[in-house]
Amino acid sequence: MTDQLARLDDEATADEQRSLSVRSRGVVYVVAGALFGLALLLAALRVGERPGRLSDWQALVLGMTQGFSELLPISSSGHLILVPWVADWRYLERHTDFNKTFDVALHLGTLISVVVYFWNDLVGYVKAFFAAVGARAIRTDDERIAVGIAIATIPAAVAGALGESAIESRLGQPWQIAILLAVFGSLLWIADQTAQRVPLRELGLGRAILIGVSQILALMPGVSRSGITITTGRFSGLSRDAAARFSFLLLVPIVLGAVLYKGAKVAIHPLPAGSTGPFVVGTIAAAAIGLVAIDLLLGYVRNHSYAPFAIYRIVLAILIAVAILSGWRASTF
After folding, report:
1. Vertex 320, ends 319 and 326: CA angle to 5°?
2. Nearest-CA neighbor of 145 among 114, 124, 176, 161?
C-alpha cells in the first residue's frame, strides 16, 4: 500500500509539473490578485450599473461565490441560490432570463481559470484527441484521457439540453438544496474512504463513462458538479488528485458549450441596459477566485482527505434547516 501511494504521489507530481511548466504558483496568485483588484475597482466605480438592477457589488459577491464553490465539491448552483436567499436579493429571482445568462457568465469566469491553469494539459489533450480520432485507435495515456473527457461530457450535455426547463421549475428551493447538500456530502465522505488505486493516466473509458453519467445529477442545485464527479471517481478507485484533475478538465467542454449556446441567444436577444457592468465584474471575480480555488484544492488533496468539504456541506445543510424552521427565511425562494 505504501509503495502504491508513493507511485500515485509521483504521478500526481508529474501532472502538477506539466501544469506548472508555463507558470509558477506565484504567477497564479499575482494574476488572481490583479483580476480581483480590477473587479473591486469596477464595482467601486459602479461601471455599467443601473438603479433597480443587479448591482456591481452584488455581482462581485456572486462572482466570488461562483469561483469558490464551482471548483470545490460544495455546489456552485446551490450557493448562487443561497447567497441571494440569505441576503434577500430579489432581482435575479424576478428576472429569470437575466439570471440564467448571468449564471453562464459566472461559469465563463471559472472556465477561464481552468483553461489558464491547465493550459499545457488542455493543449496536449486536444492534440491527443484528434490523433486518436485520426488513427481510430487509442495508443497513449493522453489519448485515453482526452477521449474519456469527450465521452464523459455527452450524458450531462444531452440531459441538460433536454431537461433544463423541468429541472428549473421543480428544483432549486432552499429546503431541497439543504437535503442534497447533506446527502451528497455524506456520499463524498463515504467515497473518500476508498483506496487510492488508480492514477489519471489509467482512467479507462468505462470509468470515464461512469463519471460522465453521474455528472447528470449535478443539474440539481445542491449536488455539485465537481462534488459528484469526484465522488464517483473516488468510488471507482481514482486517487484524490486524479479525481480532482479529471473533474476540473470535465468543466471545460460542458461550460464552453453552455457559454456558446447562451452567447448566441444574447446575440439574437440582447440583454437590457445595465447588464454589462455586473456581467463583467462577476466574470472577472469568478476567474480570480477560481484560480486560487484550483491551486488550493490540488495542493490540499495531495496529502489530505475530502472530509472537510463533506463536513462543510452537512453543517451548511443544518444551518439552512435552522434558518427555515426558525422562520428567519422561507423554505422557498
Report:
1. 85
2. 124
The vertex-65 CA angle with 59 and 69, nearest 5°, equals 150
Residue 290 near residue 71, CB atoms below 8 Å: yes
Give the whole-angstrom CA distance, residue 23 versus residue 117: 8
**Cβ(228)–Cβ(289) below 8 Å:** no
DSSP-assigned beta bridge partners for residue 238: 198
Q: CB under 8 Å to 296, separation ≥6 — which residues?
A: none
CA angle 289, 293, 297 (to 5 degrees): 175
Contact yes or no for 255/81 (Cβ under 8 A): no
Q: What is the pLDDT of residue 21?
A: 43
Cell of 38: 480590477
- 141: its cell numbers: 495515456
Query: pLDDT tens, 113-166?
Result: 999 999 999 999 999 999 999 999 999 999 999 999 999 999 999 998 887 777
Q: How far apart are CA 242 and CA 250, in angstroms?
A: 12
